[in-house]
Design the sequence.
């Protein structure tokens, strides 16, 4: 059975909406091809270039960048809830994948990019909206010419670990 999302459902309360805006991802990628990964990510963090549209969708922003190490902040809202009243694991997985992948990206010279080829996620604690920002930190554990490895974790503002991941990324010419 399906429901029409534009109609009120009697036991669900008032229908809510969310507006998302983003820049042309093809123009962003083209601009990124002219910079090293670290240069691109630093420009994104400073607001000098557009970043990934997925970050606009999930309300995440890049807040720290160094070689092999990045941090994203995200304040989940209830639009990313699953049907049992907590943040969907897909949001955590997306943040972890972004943090691990961007950590790898920060090590790459001009002309190289990456593609996630595997990620393993451990969900340790539930995430709820309205509890403040969460932080996803990614760090490279083994750089490589063809494959790089990274780890990531999500913490709440008190430092409690909510989820962890290990990832491998294929290094590709762009």
Sequence:
């Amino acid at each position: 059975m399906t429901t029409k999302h534009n109609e009120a459902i009697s036991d669900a309360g008032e229908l809510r909406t969310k507006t998302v805006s983003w820049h042309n991802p093809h123009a962003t990628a083209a601009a990124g091809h002219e910079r090293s990964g670290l240069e691109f990510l630093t420009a994104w963090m400073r607001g000098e270039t557009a970043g990934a549209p997925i970050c606009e969708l999930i309300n995440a922003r890049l807040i720290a960048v160094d070689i092999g190490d990045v941090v994203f902040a995200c304040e989940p809202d209830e639009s990313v809830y699953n049907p049992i009243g907590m943040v969907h694991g897909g949001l955590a997985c997306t943040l972890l994948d972004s943090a691990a992948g961007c950590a790898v990206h920060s090590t790459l010279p001009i002309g190289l990019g990456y593609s996630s080829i595997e990620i393993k996620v451990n969900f340790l604690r539930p995430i709820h909206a309205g509890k403040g920002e969460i932080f996803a930190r990614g760090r490279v554990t083994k750089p490589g010419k063809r494959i790089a490895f990274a780890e990531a974790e999500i913490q709440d503002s008190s430092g409690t670990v909510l989820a962890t991941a290990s990832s491998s990324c294929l290094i590709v010419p762009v």
In short: The longest strand covers residues 161-173.
